[in-house]
Amino acid sequence: MRKVITYGTFDLFHKGHLSLLTRAKALGDYLIVGVTTDHFDEARGKVNVVDSVMERIESVKKTGLADEIIIEDHEGQKIEDIEKYQIDVFTVGSDWVGTFDYLKPFCEVVYLDRTPDVSSTMLRERRFKIVKMGIVGTGRIAPRFLSESKYVSGINIICAYNPEKESGRAFEEQHEIETFHEDYEGFLDKVDGVYIAAPNETHYEYAKKALLKGKHVLCEKPIAFTKKETMELYELAGEKGVVLYEAIKTAYCPGFQQMMNMAKSGKIGQIHDVEACFSRLAAPMSRERTDAKYGGAFLEFAAYNMLPIFKLLGTDYKEVRIDSIYGEGGIDLYTKVQFVYENAMATAKCGVGVKSEGQLVIAGTEGYILAESPWWLTKKFQIRYEDADKVDTYEPRFQGDGLRYEISGFVSKINGIEHVGYRLTEREAEAMAEVTELFMKQRKAKRECLNLE
Ligand code: CTP
Hints:
Strand order of the largest sheet: 13-14-15-12-16-17-18-19
Bound molecules: cytidine-5'-triphosphate
Structural class: alpha/beta
Number of helices: 15
Shape: globular
Helix content: 25-40%
Radius of gyration: 25 Å
Distance between the termini: 84 Å
Largest sheet: 8 strands, mixed
């Protein structure tokens, strides 16, 4: 019996797939089809696959051509499979010519002509309108956003906005992207959505104007400084039927979601304490350390720290207390937020002028989860127990610098793909805004005390 194997994503199953499978089957007597997992596709940079792995398997099954369907979930698996299933022929489409020649010592390798003029990418683009995006603010994060968005299909960054002419121009030249200076409305007219990465105090106004014009908004945290303004923006997005996402990238990282799910699964028993810390010493002249009104440790890092706290313990805390170490000019160099719940407690520590261990510890009745720095990307975490020898280590997938997951979530939400839901709920965003408002009041009072306001 001649055994043939082929692999693919088979998203939005099309005639090219059918033709390939038909010809693959004809190469032998028994056809094995490997369907990629979502994880594996993401690892290869395909982050916008529409059909779930179960749906894609079902599409292959329906053809009646596959004698066996297997899952492909890691690099290097092809050789393992060829040996395990004693494969005679490996085949894929001609778009891969040469790529799999390394399998020749193990079996025959056949590249079948690719069916012209059809691909999953084309179908995805046809089905979902490409989202035309504009970037507001051309500072440090904008180039990262540009490069990470290239890994997400269905989004095109077409222009930018920066009222400061000089830096806007430099960005325009370096990235060859049209940059508006004065005319925010004109900029908005060009796009379907905006990514707001401008200074903190401008977020609310930029977001509001964009939402009023019916544009989708992905906004860096904090979207506003008060609960009222935050909720106003969410309501506005609801009225206009557009997506408003707060860009807390941790919420969209696959590892973070896995860690939250493991914590909630009861593996460490009941959770009674969450301690999160994020600190980065900012340069003395940086905005974070000099802008006493809108810079500082809390605004820089508190959202990341509050995220696992609210995800795991909820937003109905009984008390919250905020303490800061203030530097010259009344900026918070270090801020600690402590929450008291009915049956739990939590701490969020943020630093731009004080350095501490950046880690997340989730303490339960049976054990604890430890995620070391950079836990906010969650590339690795451990579950530890009383018995120090018993340690479960998880190293979830993670590509690039994390932004692509948030961008992909945003695009999927716009396209109404429901299996990618809001990772940060409206209630969580509201609760974050409540704490932010309290912090802003406290810092203002401190500055008034120092006669700085
Ligand atoms: N294939 C083909 N003809 C096409 C499209 C795909 O023969 N027009 C083949 C590929 O070469 C591969 C298999 O079908 O052997 C599965 O391909 P997959 O990557 O799932 O499909 P694409 O349409 O190429 O997907 P994408 O656009 O996401 O890359």
